Amino acid sequence: MTIEAHEREQAARLEQLKMEHRDLDDAIEALRLQSAPNQLQIARLKKRKLRLRDEIAMIQDRLIPDIIA
Question: Taking the model in full, what pTM does it have?
Fold first, then answer.
């Protein structure tokens, strides 16, 4: 696999993760609006969201080169 192909694959994965992160926001908000929200389910979704955020940051770090000031 070429470097460019790998970067395209990583960029596509990054967009997929960002979309999933946004979807989790919507799911968490929908659960909160219920008359008796399931706190355990909300906590699980929040943990998943944090793991996604970490994975997003890791991929972004690999894709975006450090700028030496």
Answer: 0.83
